[in-house]
Amino acid sequence: MQATDTPTPRPQPLSARALASWLRLQLTPGVGVTAAAALIAELQHPDRVFEADPAALGSVLSEVLADKLVPAAVQALRRPPPALLDECAGLAEAALRWLELPGHQLMALDDPAFPSQLRNIPAAPLLLYTRGRRALLYQPSVAIVGSRNASAQGVANADRFAEALAASGLTVASGLALGIDAAAHAGALAAGPAGGGTVAVVGTGIDRLYPARNRELALRIAAEGCIVSEYPLGTAPLPDNFPRRNRIISGLARGVLVIEAAAQSGSLITARYALNQGRDVFAVPGSIHATLSKGCNALIRECKAKLAESAADVLEDLLPEAPTGAGAERLQVTAQLRAELDAVLTALGHDPANADALALRAGLSAADAHSHLLALELAGLVERLPGGIFQRLTRQRP
Question: Which residue stretches of the chain have pLDDT < 50?
Fold first, then answer.
């Protein structure tokens, strides 16, 4: 099924003053994303927020903040420190310069072009910076998330699920992290230009490529897919940013597929956001003895997620109009896949070799060898050397 870019509304231009107002609301100490979205829902625009009387502000904030925090938040909104105003003015000017580059766009929450499915989630982002094919934000999508420290099996599953789902017309959204996220983006890109594409929601300023190991992948997504951030330019990879951005990953999607998650996993935060947003949740089951399967198994056991053994299990709920066939073949977590991955590692041994030589040693097709090497590389079990040579690393399979 070919995904076609639907007519895409053009974002309204933002003046430096208007953008500085949105940034001021976003960065006001003691307010936060939930309170800021509630204020916009009630008062429509940051300027009206800053002009509102303290009683009106307190009434809105008391619905989303603890009572003891409301007075300080009202004071911060009414009397901002000069340093904050200067910072916002500088960030606005930097953003306007950034917007001059090809493929760069910015939308405020009140913009008609703001994706409607994201506008309606709790704690909707105030600003959305995009780089690349913004039209992907308006197409049917599925989020794929999972462990950063994924197993080779998990990486291979993420890659294969993503490719099949993208080939069937769904855009694949994820967070550009190591492990499952990276494999999901790579799999969606492998579906080619006729597929649904991929969207990466990042936890930094959109001008920063993080993590460094995914730099080349990020550049490819910027060229062929879309990168999205709610954070001001230059924002560093602060720990609190990543769980917060997960609400955008799930908010953009019709459903969330979890592939490998420990019992206390950030991926489960995304699943909780999805459930609160009324999205479907799917999970790939795993061994009862595997740490990285405990989160997925718990979601299924508690009836919070549908068991997903194949792309077809996801498509029948999220894209029932998609055709069955090669793009939706069953992708069972099979002993055969694990055996093939082990065969590649065994063939590699401790002597670097290229993919074709490894295919011969392992008795696999060249295509399967290349696919398995990508999975093993993303899982941190092999390293790609200059000249297309692969070397086995010492890390043990989780």
Answer: 1-5, 324-334, 395-398
Per the structure block, which two tokens stand in for 93? 């000017």
Phi, psi at 358, each rounded to 5°: -65, -35
Q: Does pTM surpass 0.70?
A: yes
Domains and CATH numbers, the chain: 16-100 (1.10.150), 134-328 (3.40.50.450), 335-392 (1.10.10.10)
Tell me phi and psi for residue 376, to 5 degrees. -70, -35
From residue 138, alpha-carbon distances to 13, 111, 252, 317, 353 in Å are 19, 14, 8, 18, 43
Determine the 3-state secondary structure of 220 from DSSP.
helix
**Among candidates 182, 160, 152, 186, which has minimal Cα distance to 339?**
152
**At residue 123, what is the residue type?**
A
For residue 364, the model assigns a pLDDT of 84
Sign of CA dihedral 348, 354, 359, 360: negative
pLDDT in tens, 82-132: 999 999 999 999 999 999 999 999 999 999 999 999 999 999 999 999 999
Joined together, the tokens standing for residue 74 give 């009202």
